[in-house]
């Protein structure tokens, strides 16, 4: 939903240790703001009305607001599959009535219509979507006012005319602008990967105990992924156990003629690092085109909770360029962004 040009246009501040923004649950909503002051909130299932026939199962609502005095709202409503393309009404029992046509089962509002929806949510009990005679889906508005107040505070809007809930008399000019996203210099992947020999694999499996994770299984151990990072360095992603939907990997750096060493990261990976402090990637993926190393850890198979990170290699350390998470396992597959940086090739 976010257009990044606004944040990357400004000159970036010096690189510092990543400090992802806050993420909190409020009733049937989760809200988060990132390091640029960009904020999002998304609906989740109410605790007293979980799926299996619940009217709240059929749709989800995602709302974001750009930072700064002129920062506006965007509202996206994901509808049930095959919901049609006729004009639909977004309503509450308090009189809200905004209309729009879905595209590919998505209703999207910006500008004045989005602002009207947000304002109508503050006093309502449920946000409903349907036609003139029926309702196809609902989102509980329990906690939405608190989530909006959280965004007001994080963007410095409290007490100003731009606030959604915490309104005051201060002018829009009192609202701080966006923080610049840091620029991270990275080494573009190039060259050939160093040889990762069977003897190296055997030694790593033993020293890391990753080989023992697969004892009792059938067939051979999964292959390690070996890719060139550039600058004479090679990334080795060593398989280290698997579950029903998560596959763990330990990352190593290999130089020609040297033993593999554990890769270093400027921030923890996944929910947390292992007890021994070793970085453990989950469902790891390295994109040789962009140089991004990604980890995606699902809290359960549905994918409605967990954390995801993306890193780039600066020649010595993997540096965080994106972090997303969803702490509540209550139906939302829209994980919220808490950190973003711009990767710039050296």
How would you describe this protein?
The chain has 346 residues and is mostly beta strands. The chain has 2 domains: 5-180, Immunoglobulin-like (Sandwich); 184-345, no CATH class. 11% of the residues lie in helices and 34% in strands. It contains 4 helices and 22 strands. The longest helix is centred in the middle third of the chain and has 11 residues, at 111-121.
CATH fold naming of the largest domain: Immunoglobulin-like
Alpha plus pi helix count: 4
Helix content: 10-25%
> Which superfamily, in CATH terms, is the homologous superfamily of the largest domain?
Invasion associated locus B (IalB) protein
CATH architecture of the largest domain: Sandwich
Overall pLDDT level: 90
H/E element order = HEEEEEEEEHEEHEHEEEEEEEEEEE
CATH first level of the largest domain: which class? Mainly Beta
Distance between the termini: 28 Å
Q: Please report which band the strand proportion falls in: under 5%, 5-15%, 15-25%, 25-35%, 35-45% or over 45%.
A: 25-35%
InterPro entries: DUF1176
Protein name: DUF1176 domain-containing protein
Pfam families: DUF1176
Could you give a quick summary of the protein structure above?
With 346 residues, the protein is mostly beta strands.
Structural topology:
Layout: H1 5-8, E1 23-26, E2 29-33, E3 39-43, E4 60-65, E5 73-78, E6 88-91, E7 97-100, E8 106-110, H2 111-121, E9 126-130, E10 135-140, H3 144-154, E11 183-186, H4 198-208, E12 225-230, E13 233-242, E14 247-255, E15 261-262, E16 281-282, E17 285-287, E18 292-298, E19 306-313, E20 318-326, E21 336-340, E22 342-345
Parallel strand pairs: 11-22
Antiparallel strand pairs: 1-2, 2-3, 3-4, 4-5, 5-8, 6-7, 6-9, 9-10, 12-13, 13-14, 14-15, 14-16, 17-18, 18-19, 19-20, 20-21
């Amino acid at each position: 939903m976010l257009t990044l040009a606004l944040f990357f246009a400004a000159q970036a501040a010096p690189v510092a240790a990543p400090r992802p923004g806050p993420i909190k649950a409020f009733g049937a909503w989760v809200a988060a703001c990132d390091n640029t002051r960009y904020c999002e909130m998304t609906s989740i299932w109410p605790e007293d009305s979980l799926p299996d026939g619940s009217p709240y199962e059929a749709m989800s609502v995602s709302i974001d607001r750009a930072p700064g005095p002129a920062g506006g709202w965007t509202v996206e409503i994901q509808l049930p599959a095959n919901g049609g393309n006729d004009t639909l009404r977004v309503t509450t029992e308090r009189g809200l009535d905004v209309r729009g046509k879905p595209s590919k089962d998505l209703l999207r509002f910006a500008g004045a219509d989005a602002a009207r929806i947000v304002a109508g949510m503050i006093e309502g009990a449920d946000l409903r979507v349907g036609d003139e005679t029926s309702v196809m889906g609902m989102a509980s508005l329990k906690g939405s006012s608190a989530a909006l107040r959280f965004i007001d505070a994080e963007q410095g809007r409290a007490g100003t005319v731009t606030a959604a809930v915490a309104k005051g008399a201060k002018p829009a000019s009192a609202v701080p602008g966006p923080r610049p996203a840091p620029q991270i210099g990275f080494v573009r992947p190039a060259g050939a990967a160093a040889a990762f020999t069977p003897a190296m694999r055997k030694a790593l499996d033993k020293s890391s105990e990753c080989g023992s994770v697969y004892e009792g299984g059938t067939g051979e151990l999964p292959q390690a992924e070996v890719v060139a990072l550039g600058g004479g360095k090679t990334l080795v992603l060593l398989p280290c156990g698997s579950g029903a939907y998560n596959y763990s990997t330990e990352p190593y750096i290999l130089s020609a003629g040297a033993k593999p060493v554990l890769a270093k990261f400027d921030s923890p990976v996944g929910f947390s690092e292992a007890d021994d402090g070793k970085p453990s990637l989950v469902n790891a993926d390295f994109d040789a085109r962009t140089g991004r190393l990604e980890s995606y850890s699902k809290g359960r198979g549905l994918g409605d909770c967990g954390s995801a990170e993306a890193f780039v290699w600066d020649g010595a350390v993997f540096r965080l360029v994106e972090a997303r998470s969803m702490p509540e396992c209550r139906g939302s597959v829209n994980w919220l962004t808490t950190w973003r940086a711009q990767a710039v090739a050296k």
